[in-house]
Amino acid sequence: MSNNLQAWADTFGGRAAHLPGAQLPWLAAARQQALDRFMGEGWPTTKNDAWRHTSLSPLAAATFVDGDAQAVADQVAALKAQEAGHWLVFVDGAFDAALSDIGSLPADVRLLPLSQAWAAQADALQGLYGQVADGYSTSALNLALASDGAWVSLARGATLDAPVHIVCVAASPKAAHFLRHVVHAEAGAQATVVEHYVGVAGASNFHHAVTRLRLDQDARITHLKLQQESAQAWHLGEIDAVQARGSYFASHSVSLGARLARHDIATHFADERCETLFNGLYYVDQRRHVDHHTLIGHEKPRCVSHETYRGILADTAHGVFSGRILVAPGADGTDAIQRNDSLLLSRLAKSDSRPELEIYADDVKCAHGATVGQIDEDSLFYLRSRGLDEAHARDILTYAFAAASVARIDAPLLRQRVEQAIRSLLPGGGAVLEAA
Prior knowledge:
This protein folds into 2 domains: 3-271, no CATH class; 376-436, no CATH class. With 436 residues, it is α/β, with parallel strands linked by helices. The strands form 2 sheets. A 10-stranded mixed beta sheet has the order 2-1-5-7-9-11-13-15-17-19, with helices on one face. It has a 9-stranded mixed beta sheet with strand order 3-4-6-8-10-12-14-16-18, covered by helices on one side. A hairpin with a 2-residue loop joins strand 1 (86-91) and strand 2. The chain has helices at residues 3-15, 25-41, 57-61, 73-80, 114-126, 137-145, 377-385, 390-406, 412-425, 429-435, and strands spanning 86-91, 94-95, 109-113, 150-154, 164-170, 176-185, 190-199, 206-215, 220-228, 234-243, 248-255, 260-269, 275-284, 289-298, 304-313, 318-327, 334-344, 350-359, 364-373.
């Protein structure tokens, strides 16, 4: 057993008795079994085909220590000022009631941190929280150590007009935080859920978040994950959805920070006439690395999925996309489109793309593709001929490439937030704003 694995076992030993819900026998047993699984399997390696482009060796060798939370009120206040909504704020993996603002909710909506929900909603959560065997060994580590998270429960026909904002702040500069969020939308319910991950500048913290969503018949959930942590941070994220008949799930993944970020996103169609939108946008520079792994399970007939991911890569950054669409036997009438496009701003930037269609049904309409390229020289010449210098012209063309993904976000205020985040990364962001 490596010393690093033993450190995680020691962390579990110190935290287990104090984790929310520790008094529930089934949850305590599941956490111990999950820790045992992680200790037995260790971190995923590049020998695993799903991880062949993403090495966790630096993360596995890193050490993390708990620290005192720093003042983050201004940072959270800046986010709240951008739009209304129901806010749950987690600082260093723990719910912060003072910074949160859940506000007034309809009677048929429950919105709580899991640290409180275990006392009142344990039975409802047990079937939704996840199993020891789910995912990779990293999923098991999260199950063992998740300290808190959001519980979003929408009763039959419930509608939330304002978004639910789940803000996760890494205030301690070198600590590991494990969060698990659960969203359940009963038949006909509708809501928008936003996960926002931020941290202090220069922090080398580790955020690991698992989000589990269950959509009952005709439910509609839009989920936006905006990851803007320090360039020295680590981030592992998993989103797992199960959709019932006629439901609609939109997943927007925007990854703009972290030394290494890995996002596993999956949905499974449990009945007919489901629809999903997978929309991703990532920007990486310096020596940073981002990896998106997606799975859309067309397990029932007459379901629709549209999947588009766009990556912008600068300097010596590395972007990875691996998307799998699985059409099961009998899933006739499937309509599935998958695409990944990468824009390289440097000759040393690298993109690995692997879109996959695995089809076991005959009556289907499926397409997939990938492109990797640089800024079009003719377009660059056109802008320069209109009086723009080269740097600003490149920024405008880069933003235009990103804008195709941003435009797929239906909510205007959320779309505006992503637009601002992208512009802030470009050297000539002000000029881009004026030109747009």
